[in-house]
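Problem statement: downstream parser choked on a complex file, so we are re-checking the raw output for the DLL run. The parser issue turned out to be on our end (a line-ending mismatch), but while we're here, posting the original submission so the record is complete.
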Amino acid sequence: MANYFNEAVETMPVEEIKKLQGERLVEQVKHVYENVEFYRNKMDEMGVKPEDIHGLEDLHKLPFITKDDLRDQYPYGFLGVPTSDCVRIQSTSGTTGRRVVSFYTQEDIDIWDECCARAIVAAGGTKDDVVHVCYGYGLFTGGAGLNGGSHKVGCMTLPMSSGNTDRQIQFMKDLGSTILCCTPSYAAYLAESIHERGGLEDIKLKAGIFGAEAWTEEMRANIEQSLGIKAYDIYGLTEISGPGVSFECEEQKGMHINEDHFIAEVINPQTGEVLPEGEKGELVFTCITKKAFPLLRYRTRDICVLSRQKCSCGRTHIRMSKPLGRSDDMMVVKGVNVFPSQIETVLLNDGYEANYQLVVDRVKNSDTIACDVEWSPSNPPEDKVERERREKKLVAHLKSMLGILVDVNLVAPKSIPRSEGKAVRIIDNRNLYEESKLK
Ligand code: DLL
């Protein structure tokens, strides 16, 4: 029996959703044209006026927005309302350049909270649940988003934020947390820590809502098994509000996009051409209800596939696949496209856990890629010969997945730093090299 937070909207017939999206788009384009000078200039350059947008069929006439545009317009360039109408800001981590700051009116926050509430209910949440939020609070959207959604559902909410693993586990036991919200890498670390300390029988968790970073099906199976829960994926990005842009239902086959608030397209990242449903490309979002930071046709750089196939949960909103990686997470090594998720799949299939780190380098104009991976504490190699045998096996499996040689180093458990938020999977020393050339 499916659970909905807003059944009327979540199961609306597709034709009605598209009509609603079209109407909201027309209004939103007027709002943006009137209030965001940067976008007005872009539309003028392309000779597009708000009157040319009659519905969804005209979406392709609008220009794209990129992360660089947001950085150039930092901080207020995309603001669609006076600052006196804003009640909140959130921001990206800014590890790869200038931060992006996103603004919210109270109504924008209410919409965002509802999107997260839908995700919690889809994961089986009710007002009787104890929701344990260990996404970071503060500028990161993870804590605030799931916290708001949990309040909307009426759950008892534990605003744990990230870090202090001992306290997380203690509260989980003492207060009977039933739904865990954090990054999948932190969930895996919590599971590892709970097993080390013992007392799994005192943990009441039944579900986890994990997102903010790429994770594989193999990692899902590991977390579900070690914590005895059902693990649901949740997706979102600061620019489009935060978590809850899309979320998984009990089918766990792709994430339903909240289409009454966001229009999704998939494009060819090289040409910008809109691709038919079912083809893989870059995900693009148009916000049709948010007023303070109303991005139209925002290029996410996330690579994924959309599907309108009927879902047995009854939700009619389109589903997106797990992002297969970010176009900027994708490394080109020796001319081959490599996503960390491909490497993770090989490691987990071979019985390792997702405790790995990739180091990419350039030596004498030639790329090298190394992968440090921890052996399992329950299955350490007996000696050097056994360790080398296992490394060779992994090298062969990675070669057949990627077509290139990855230098594998098996290392002791806990030698790779654990993350409380998004895991650091790649150290690309070639970027440093490129940057140092610019200085
Ligand atoms: O990560 C928002 C979020 C918080 C989502 C909590 C889910 C849960 P940003 O820090 O702006 O926002 O990063 C957004 O993270 O473009 C994706 O590349 C990646 N990402 C987010 N969710 C997923 C997911 C938050 N479920 C960027 N699977 C996005 C894979 C994800 N990647």
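For whoever reads this later: Residues 92-93, 135, 141-142, 211-214, 233-238, 242-243, 300, 302, 322-323, 326 surround DLL (CB under 6 Å).
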